[in-house]
């Protein structure tokens, strides 16, 4: 089969994928469906939390911000990545390539930053409930949200526009990787380690430790409640609200722990390959790296599904959105769950 190039009239043009329509069409269908599901699912989360006053809580503000990250990834990043993945060509210009790559890294990093702060929120809710409202107040949550957006933005755009991601491997990049009509997410040995540690490994390790601590405390509380119930039945009646509260907080921690687990599973292949690829002479084929990127994108698709599976309030809110009940007068005061 004759080779095709992204720009036939230009020297050193990237090679275009010569896949037949039997491969290209299913790829476009799968990726477009993923994009649509990501946008619709996260938009439903955004509308639910923004509309219903009962959902205006510190944890839900963090979830709202994270859903916004995932929604933006779906509408600003994934469509262009789809064309690049199927065609192996970039038709949108060199400057926009840098903007796209920076936005991609920023939003992916912002997701795990949000998850890190959510784990801190859950730690205080489960392990120190008496001081939870004092420690996790509106000011604290706003600080977490701002940090989750600003720090990844500075890191991502600074690295891409200053070309720190190729520093130390410039000769290899320009001779072996760079071509006209390409837009590659490339990391040198140093930048690959720094990016993987900052965006994935360090915050991921911190989250695992925090949720491990939450699990231990929650088990201890459950045993304590069970022992108290066995010894003094009246105690259950007098302290029922507190037990229900603890049970709800443990369930929330379990749910958000599941979300964290999905994130780690989805993004592990990409970040492991990013960290190790430069040290093994980039033997991992670009098509495999690209597949890892899309596995990572699926995390943003799965998050709303986790909410729908675990949270009754989200299922009720989603039903009201689908049937247009949110447009009714005073629908924002609807009780979606009982304390």
Walk me through the structure:
With 339 residues, the protein is mainly α. The protein has a single domain, classed as Rhodopsin 7-helix transmembrane proteins (Rhopdopsin 7-helix transmembrane proteins). It is built from 11 helices and 2 strands, in the order E-E-H-H-H-H-H-H-H-H-H-H-H. The radius of gyration is 23 Å and the shape is globular. The chain starts with a strand and ends in a 17-residue tail after the last helix. The relative contact order is 0.13.
Q: Could you list some keywords that capture this structure?
A:
11 helices; disulfide bond; 1% strand; TAAR_fam; 339 residues; mainly alpha; 75% helix; Rhopdopsin 7-helix transmembrane proteins
Strand order of the largest sheet: 1-2
Q: Helicity level, as a percent range?
A: over 70%
Span from first to last CA? 66 Å
Q: What can be said about the biggest beta sheet?
A: 2 strands, antiparallel
Low-confidence stretches: 234-238
Q: What is the arithmetic mean of pLDDT?
A: 87
Number of strands: 2
Class by helix and strand content? mainly alpha
InterPro entries: GPCR_Rhodpsn, GPCR_Rhodpsn_7TM, TAAR, TAAR1, TAAR_fam
Keywords: Cell membrane, Disulfide bond, Endoplasmic reticulum, G-protein coupled receptor, Glycoprotein, Membrane, Receptor, Transducer, Transmembrane, Transmembrane helix
Subcellular location: Cell membrane; Endoplasmic reticulum membrane
Pfam families: 7tm_1
């Amino acid at each position: 089969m004759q080779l095709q190039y992204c720009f036939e009239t230009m020297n050193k043009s990237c090679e275009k994928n010569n896949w037949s329509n039997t491969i290209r069409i299913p790829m476009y269908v799968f990726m477009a469906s993923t994009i649509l599901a990501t946008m619709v699912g996260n938009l439903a989360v955004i509308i639910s939390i923004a509309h219903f006053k009962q959902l205006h809580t510190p944890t839900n503000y963090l979830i709202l911000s994270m859903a916004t990250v995932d929604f933006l990834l779906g509408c600003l990043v994934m469509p262009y990545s789809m064309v690049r993945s199927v065609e192996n060509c970039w038709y949108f210009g060199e400057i926009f390539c840098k903007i796209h790559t920076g936005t991609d890294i920023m939003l992916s990093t912002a997701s795990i930053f949000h998850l890190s702060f959510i784990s801190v929120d859950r730690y205080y809710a489960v392990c120190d409930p008496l001081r939870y409202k004092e420690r996790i107040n509106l000011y604290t949550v706003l600080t977490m949200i701002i940090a989750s957006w600003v720090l990844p933005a500075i890191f991502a755009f600074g690295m891409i526009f200053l070309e720190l991601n190729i520093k130390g491997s410039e000769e290899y990049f320009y001779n072996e990787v760079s071509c006209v009509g390409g837009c590659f997410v490339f990391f040198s040995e140093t930048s690959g380690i720094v990016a993987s540690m900052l965006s994935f490994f360090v915050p991921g390790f911190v989250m695992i430790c925090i949720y491990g601590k939450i699990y231990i405390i929650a088990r201890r509380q459950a045993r304590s409640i069970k022992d108290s119930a066995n010894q003094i039945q009246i105690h259950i009646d007098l302290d029922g609200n507190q037990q229900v509260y603890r049970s709800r907080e443990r369930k929330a921690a379990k749910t958000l722990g599941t979300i964290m687990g999905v994130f780690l599973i989805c993004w592990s292949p990409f970040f492991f390959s990013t960290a190790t690829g430069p040290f093994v002479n980039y033997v991992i084929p670009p098509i495999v790296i690209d597949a890892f990127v899309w596995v990572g994108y699926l995390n943003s698709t799965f998050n709303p599904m986790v909410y729908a599976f675990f949270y009754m309030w989200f299922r009720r809110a989603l039903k009201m959105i689908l049937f247009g009940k949110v447009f009714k007068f005073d629908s924002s005061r609807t009780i979606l769950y009982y304390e």
